[in-house]
Amino acid sequence: MSATSFQHLNKGELTQLLDIARDAIRGHFSDELILPPRLDLYGKKLLQPGASFVTLKVNGKLQGCLGTTLAHSPLVLDVHNKARASAYQDRRFMPLCEEQLDQLTIEVSVLSQPEVLSVDSEQALIAHLSNNKVGVILSDNHAQALFLPQVWEQIRQPAEFVRQLKIKAGWQGNYWSPTMTVKTFIVDSITGKYHY
């Protein structure tokens, strides 16, 4: 799905994905076995291959965020798997624990297919982003970093957005290369509190 052909999800579909993410996390703290969602319970759009990120915050602070840009399994399964991974496999954080659940918020983002943006310089990228608050993937050689569009809420200046993205990839803040690849994407997202 490119940004132009992106099939937007409605509120009901996004709410279903949020419930799937909650259930995936809840299963870790439950004696009952929580299985992946039954595919026959969902509509066509949620069964299409989809790419998602699940972001977890406790008291407003990041607690886990993992996802993929490649759609390779039904969206409902992708969200289930990314919710579990964000809660227990994001190496930047200790695994989610039961004491954190009262303050936990879950954000599910469904990504359009990233599209290559042809820019010949960092200045051209910054100029593009000043009018387009989209998600960005920078890659060069074997390093890559991604910011979801929601990062614009914290980093409002395009130049700083790009600088922080480069630092996330492990480069110096002033790094740029003629072989740098830039891809952009949009998302549909929903945020909700975790509740038992």
From TrEMBL:
Query: Domain AMMECR1 spans what residues?
Result: 12-196
Record's InterPro entries? AMMECR1, AMMECR1_dom_sf, AMMECR1_domain, AMMECR1_N, AmmeMemoSam_A
**Matches recorded under NCBIfam families:** AmmeMemoSam_A
Q: Which PANTHER family match?
A: AMME SYNDROME CANDIDATE GENE 1 PROTEIN, AMMECR1 HOMOLOG
User: This chain belongs to which protein, by name?
Assistant: ACR protein
Source species taxonomy? Bacteria, Pseudomonadati, Pseudomonadota, Gammaproteobacteria, Vibrionales
